[in-house]
Amino acid sequence: MQFDDNAALDTSEVQDNRGGALGGIPGGGKTVGGGVVGLLVLVASVIFGVDPGLFGSDSTTSPDTGSGSGASAADLAADCRTGADANSKDECRIVAVVDSVQAFWKKTETDAGKSYEQAPTYLFTGSVNTGCGSATSDVGPFYCSADDKVYLDLGFFDELSGKFGAKGGPFAEAYVIAHEYGHHIQDLSGTISRGSGKGENSGSVKLELQADCYAGVWAHHATTTPDPKSGKPLITELTQDDINRGLDAAAAVGDDRIQQRYQGKVTPDTWTHGSAAQRQKWFSTGYTSGSVARCDTFR
Length: 299
Fold this sequence. Notes:
Layout: E1 2-3, E2 14-16, E3 31-32, H1 39-47, H2 73-79, H3 83-88, H4 90-111, E4 121-123, E5 127-130, E6 133-136, E7 142-144, E8 149-152, H5 156-162, H6 170-189, H7 203-221, E9 235-237, H8 240-252, H9 255-263, H10 276-289
Parallel strand pairs: 2-4, 4-8
Antiparallel strand pairs: 1-9, 3-7, 5-6, 7-8
Helix pairs in contact: 1-9, 4-6, 6-7, 6-8, 7-10, 8-10
């Protein structure tokens, strides 16, 4: 995956609080994760008997964003200015992917006569307080509908390859981010309310598979979506190896793969994200068609 060296990055879409220590103040809203979201919560439920449903609360207490002692948004803005920075620095690549994904959805929603609401990515380490409640890095990447943010500890990408056996790489990371923004689109459309229950045919699985499909749709258009500032695509190249690594990441976080790895057996009646084959199928559906309409997993 390559970015236009001369493209200007918009760091305002990424809020950096790495190193911050945040307390636990519960909030309202819904958290969803997939592809990869909620992965580590699922693993925790397998190993430690933790109920994934415990994350989040019906309380309406406002989140405390904390002061943080690590990197700041100013540091990110200084370090991540151009596509060349995205090609050479991990955190700048995250900024570039977020810029690309949101540019695509803003154009897509505008073309459809709808209004797109920006949703920043919030970088943290250790723990974070959100509109949906407090969370630790063990939860993995997730989207909170109460504050319209994607939450991400960059250390998760090491876990993706180390614990889950994915090949990893820049596009595997991009797939995860694009999946989370798929949940934002579901939130804007109201579909997110349909994601409930457990089992291979549950609303939760269908919601996650649709987010995988949306990630594939973005990937299809990634090299042709114009950047709002330059009018040129921010991403200049996606190779077949990139796509293969995205598919590999999707399979690595399939419910069946995780269950087999951590509990030694597969129990489809407890699935919340879908099997490895399902995840690959729906990402591929989005990528090959490039059509949002083809992502109706609820049919």
